[in-house]
Amino acid sequence: MTREEMSQFVERFSGPPEGPSREGQELEVDLDSESAPLDPNRVVPDPLSGVRQSEGARRSQGTGVNDGLGMSRQGGGTPPPPQLRKLVEAYQRRLSDTNPPTTPPSRPSGGPPK
């Protein structure tokens, strides 16, 4: 597709569609006395009663999806790379701290944090 063809394709979708808009219309609703409100205690038949399911589609109680790599553990199953290990450990210590500091730690002057 050339650049010109792409620009022509994009131009078709820029802006609202052309042409007259249709006029609004009034809707009339006939509320006759014969239409009773639905009973909140009604029993609706199961729409899937005749559908067969294979045994492979069912899970036993307590089973979950296995992600294959992290074995569905929170936080992943692999250790952080050596370059990030200190940062991850500091983050975990900060999360486990019961009394977090009320003010953020001061940065040394001389540039952005590393």
Characterise this structure.
The protein has 114 residues and is mainly alpha-helical. The protein has two helices and no strands. It has helices at residues 3-12, 85-96. The mean pLDDT is 75.
**Largest sheet: number of strands, sense, barrel closure:** none
- Mean pLDDT value: 75
Secondary structure: number of strands: 0
| Percent of residues in helices | 10-25%
Helix count from the secondary structure assignment = 2
The rounded Rg comes to: 31 Å
Query: What portion of residues belong to β-strands?
Result: under 5%
Low-confidence stretches: none
Structure in a nutshell:
The chain is mostly helical and 114 residues long.
Features:
114 residues, mainly alpha, 19% helix
Write the layout of secondary structure elements.
Elements: H1 3-12, H2 85-96
